[in-house]
Design brief:
single chain, about 300 residues, alpha/beta, Rossmann fold, Cobalt-precorrin-4 Transmethylase, domain 1, five-stranded parallel sheet, 10 helices
């Protein structure tokens, strides 16, 4: 029987995801359907399915979108040639996270200044694919790769990071790069998404209090997987990543007194509430409290056509 549930705060939708989902919803309202999104707007099945039910169509290429339909680029960003083609359309909205766009601009600046560029991230991730389109760069994802990478200008080198990683994720890799290239440059404002770091820091605090941690999030979501890894590295070996309440049938909460719950940056709160209700119904109706790590109060502006 679970005695208590502690919810991590912040959790769930980050500002970039909130903005992207709102863009699609407002575009659906404004254009009465015929809204197409290049790539899944965010990596969460519930969000995507709900938008599909409202009429959104998700595709992997602009060529799949009819000429008279609305085209939207996902929150992860896209290479410049894709943006150029999208802008040439009559109806187009860019839902790229503003922080990701800052990384694109920094990549352009580094290349113009003659730097060899490295991006720390997951090979094949949509954000990394998009960023690599803005400048010539190499991608690495491990300390071993950092130890072996060769660059054209070792005395003039800079690195970027995938925004959905955290300082913890990249610390070892950055340390190795600085060891090999003492003069390596980096964006002064930083690339790491504060929402990602905040959620991981909140999980570390949660781990001090809980026997078991459930991370609500898709198994295809980079930041959700990192949350689960952070919980385990923080000492909670009994950690599960579950897309929704139906997956709770596959785990056991036996010998769990205090259960911690958090969610990835692309997860709607309704999925968290479903998990809470399931646990309360099946494991002794535990009380619920919130562990507040930090309050997020910044907002991103919508495209002017949808405000």
């Amino acid at each position: 029987m679970v005695e208590k549930i502690i919810l991590a705060s912040p959790r769930g939708f980050c500002l970039g995801v909130t903005r992207a989902v709102e863009i699609v919803n407002k575009a659906l309202d404004k254009h009465n359907g015929s809204v197409y999104v290049r790539h899944k707007i965010v990596h969460n099945e519930k969000v995507v399915n709900d938008l599909e039910d409202k009429g959104a169509v998700f595709v992997e290429s602009l060529s799949e979108i009819p000429n008279d339909a609305v085209a939207i680029l996902s929150a992860h960003g896209a290479p410049p040639e894709v943006e150029t083609k999208a802008k040439a359309r009559e109806k187009y909205y860019n839902a790229t996270c503003p922080l990701v766009k800052k990384i694109h601009n920094q990549a352009i600046k580094f290349e113009q200044e003659g730097y060899s560029i490295i991006i720390i991230g997951k090979q094949g991730h949509q954000e990394v694919i998009g960023t690599m389109g803005y400048a010539n760069m190499q991608v690495i994802s491990s300390v071993e790769e950092a130890a072996n990478i060769e660059v054209e200008h070792p005395d003039k080198i800079a690195y970027l990071t995938q925004t959905t990683l955290s300082m913890d994720d990249t610390a070892g890799i950055v340390g190795k790069l600085k060891e090999r290239f003492p003069g390596i440059e980096h964006s002064k404002k930083g690339d790491i998404c504060k929402a990602t770091q905040n959620r991981q820091s909140a999980v570390k605090e949660l781990a001090k209090l809980c026997d078991y941690i459930i991370v609500v999030g898709s198994t295809t979501s980079s930041n959700s997987k990192r949350l689960a890894e952070t919980a385990m590295k923080s000492g909670v070996g009994r950690t599960s990543l579950v897309p929704d309440k139906t997956y709770l049938n596959d785990i056991t909460l036996a010998n769990t007194n205090i259960l911690g719950i958090t969610s990835g940056a692309s997860v709607p709160e309704v999925l968290v509430n479903d998990v809470i209700n399931y646990v309360q119904k099946n494991f002794g109706n535990p009380s619920v409290e919130t562990l507040e790590y930090v309050i997020e109060n910044t907002n991103y502006v919508l495209p002017k056509e949808l405000r």
